[in-house]
Design brief:
6 strands
């Protein structure tokens, strides 16, 4: 198997709950991988270590550092602080969408130490690269939109995102209040969620090994660095209430941004959802399941593709998570044409806002009483 094909192989979780097998025919996946291999060979491009990605990282890094410095050390009025807070929030989002995401998926470089360094930018902005790897790279990517396996579609009692989840009375209004929940997601993640998962040793219904040694040290050091940047340094120059207020504003923006972008990929009307599998089997191939449960959006919008790190190409990302997102626009043409030949439905929304509207309608539908 070539280095390009290996990049597209599905990740497998190791917990007892994850003995799930895809039993469908793999001819489509084999042919698609062959075409992607040929693309890289014929074009002479590398799937990772792309100069465009290194340049992009430098731009985003300067963006983050500049916004942070101006907000903490220069801004002295609310009308100076507010736009800088928004600028910083979008920089944090750009780090997550681009640098951390590619690093966490080993799509940034062929050198693991570079991937690790890029993945740890998540620790810099308050998350945990270790827990994210299990929650996102393993559980979500291997079992996207499968009930009891993909924790990303399980928000507990507060919202219903899958037709295979129980309905609760308050959820009939979830299409209105869920946006506020998205706003607190990042704050909960930074200050509570990671610690809760670390202590409990599980993410949703899935168990994962608690970090030890260097991984645990990275978790602790990352939280300390984040708390220093978010609260420690700013408190030398501003009052506690000012720091707390602008922290909440910036992280609310980050939470909405991250949530909406990821929800447009899987929690929309066009995506397929699978109930708890009988006998631990899915009657489909892994690749076709990824396509059926994912939806692209705004594929032809270069700005959206740049700022979101190619996450508008979710089908391509799920099929080839270890290929740098710089290549997703080109790969999407190969994927779409192969889908047409094999009779696999390729789903997309033409614009970002079309995806948002579909997500709104899906959340509203899931909030209706069963049988309504």
């Amino acid at each position: 198997m070539s280095q390009y094909s290996a990049a597209s192989a599905p990740l497998r979780a190791v917990s007892a709950e994850s003995k799930l097998r895809f039993t469908g025919n793999n001819d489509f996946h084999r042919e698609l991988r062959r075409r992607v291999d040929a693309f890289f060979v014929d074009s002479g491009k590398r799937p990772r270590d792309c100069w465009q990605m290194y340049l992009k990282t430098a731009v985003i890094g300067l963006w983050f550092a500049g916004a942070y410095a101006l907000l903490v050390f220069w801004a002295s009025t609310w009308w100076q602080a507010l736009p800088l807070t928004l600028l910083l929030a979008f920089a944090v989002g750009a780090i997550g969408f681009n640098v951390q995401h590619d690093g966490g998926h080993k799509a940034y470089s062929d050198h693991q130490w570079i991937n690790n360094a890029m993945a740890m930018t998540l620790d810099l902005v308050g998350g945990s690269s270790y827990i994210w790897r299990w929650k996102h790279s393993v559980f979500h990517h291997a079992y996207v939109n499968i009930q009891d396996y993909d924790s990303d579609v399980d928000l507990g009692v507060i919202a219903r995102l899958s037709p295979h989840q129980p309905h609760r009375f308050m959820q009939r209004w979830q299409h209105w209040y869920i946006w506020a929940l998205y706003g607190v997601m990042t704050i909960r993640w930074q200050l509570y969620g990671d610690f809760r998962d670390l202590v409990a040793g599980n993410i949703g219904a899935q168990k994962f090994p608690r970090p030890q040694g260097r991984s645990l040290l990275t978790f602790i050091a990352g939280k300390l660095v984040f708390l220093t940047l978010a609260f420690g340094i700013p408190l030398f120059f501003h009052s506690f209430w000012v720091v707390a207020l602008f922290y909440m504003v910036s992280m609310a923006v980050v939470g909405i941004l991250l949530s909406v972008v990821f929800q447009l990929a899987h929690c929309v009307e066009e995506a397929e959802f699978v109930g708890p599998p009988a006998a631990g089997e899915i009657d489909s191939s892994w690749a076709i399941h990824q396509i059926e449960s994912s939806v692209d959006f705004a594929r032809r919008n270069r700005f959206v593709s740049w700022i979101l790190g190619g996450l508008n190409f979710q089908i391509e990302h799920h099929l080839f998570p270890r290929v740098c997102h710089i290549h997703y626009p080109a790969l999407s043409k190969l994927v779409e044409s192969t889908c047409v030949e094999f009779g696999v439905r390729y789903r997309e929304h033409k614009s970002f806002w079309a995806g948002v509207a579909s997500h709104f309608r899906w959340v509203r539908r899931m909030g209706q009483p069963l049988g309504a």
